[in-house]
């Protein structure tokens, strides 16, 4: 099996995820190289320890960077802390206004509350950054190299997390407007109200995109080991609960067929887990990728890997 159908579909948003160290970045980069043959592609990484620069053999910044030797391909490493800072700078006045007008806290107390680090908000802001780029329509396809599974699931829970946050702020805003109507007998739409409406629209768009099987696909990357099989099951189960389309699994780092006793034993050990995944994920497309003799870095090696991914030839070249 292969990823050929990905290039022949209407997909626009493709995420790569799995446990740490299974080769997500390499698979995302190789896929991006292939898709850039026909589409203008932007590849993001949300991993706190990004390695896209190593894959492409060039510096990748926190703004779209043209990938050398690959026309139509751009890459970007999202700095979550920077994105969060930009968000606070852009919307800080509106959020402080809501907190100050909707609570009995003193101004300095609301400012302290605003500066608190909210767990998971960095992932939220990373996703919002991606959505902002998608809104611009400057690219045709958007690929995301996600962080290890735990971070990724928080990222995918963005709609619920952000929705609860907006509901909290909305409740404070409702109290303020109720008081204004009571004393002034009138009210008017303010920038803080517009901020809440815009954020609510963002949540709705994210929900719609993540659950759109015609536009979105989550590619699970794994390796043929016992713990990896278990984590893959948990990840796919979580994706199903969130109704996020996921039909593709890449099994990476498979030992090649060889006459050497050590290689035979390793491959035999791996085969039982490969077969188990084929039985468990009967309705998924499983693409097998053989362990490479050297690191897959640089455009030439990524192009070779992308050929294997999209033609379904798992074995190494001789």
UniProtKB/TrEMBL annotation:
Gene3D superfamilies: P-loop containing nucleotide triphosphate hydrolases. PANTHER family: ARSENICAL PUMP-DRIVING ATPASE ARSENITE-TRANSLOCATING ATPASE, ATPASE GET3. Belongs to the arsA ATPase family. It holds the Pfam family ArsA_ATPase. SUPFAM superfamilies: P-loop containing nucleoside triphosphate hydrolases (SSF52540). This is Arsenic transporter ATPase. Residues 12-309 form the ArsA/GET3 Anion-transporting ATPase-like domain. InterPro entries: ArsA/GET3_ATPase-like, ATPase_ArsA/GET3, P-loop_NTPase.
């Amino acid at each position: 099996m292969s990823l050929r159908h990905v290039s022949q579909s209407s997909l626009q948003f493709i995420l790569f995820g799995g446990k740490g160290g299974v080769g997500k970045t390499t698979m995302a980069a190789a896929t991006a190289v292939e898709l850039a043959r026909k589409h203008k592609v932007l590849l993001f990484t949300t991993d706190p320890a990004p390695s896209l620069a190593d894959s492409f053999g060039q510096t990748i910044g926190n703004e779209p960077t043209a990938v050398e030797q690959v026309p139509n391909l751009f890459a970007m490493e999202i700095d979550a802390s920077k994105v969060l800072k930009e968000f606070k700078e852009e919307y800080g006045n509106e959020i402080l206004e809501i907190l100050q007008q909707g609570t009995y806290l003193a101004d300095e107390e609301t400012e302290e509350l605003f500066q608190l680090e909210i767990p998971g908000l960095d992932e939220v802001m990373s996703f919002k950054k991606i959505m902002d780029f998608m809104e611009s329509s400057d690219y045709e396809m958007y690929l995301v190299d996600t962080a290890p599974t735990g971070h990724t699931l928080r990222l995918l829970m963005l709609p619920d997390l952000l929705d609860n946050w907006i509901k909290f702020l909305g409740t404070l805003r409702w109290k303020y407007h109720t008081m204004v109507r009571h004393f002034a007998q009138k009210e008017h739409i303010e920038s803080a109200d517009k901020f809440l409406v815009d954020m609510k629209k963002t949540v709705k768009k994210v929900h719609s995109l993540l659950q759109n099987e015609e536009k979105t696909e989550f590619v699970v990357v794994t390796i043929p080991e016992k713990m990896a099989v278990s984590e893959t099951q948990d990840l796919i189960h979580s994706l199903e609960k969130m109704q996020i389309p996921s039909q593709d699994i890449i099994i990476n780092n498979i030992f090649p067929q060889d006459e050497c006793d050590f290689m035979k034993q390793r491959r035999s050990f791996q085969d039982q887990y490969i077969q188990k995944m084929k039985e468990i994920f009967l309705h998924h497309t499983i693409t097998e990728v053989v362990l490479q003799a050297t690191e897959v870095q640089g455009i030439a090696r990524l192009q070779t890997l992308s050929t294997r991914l999209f033609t379904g030839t798992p074995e190494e070249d001789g």
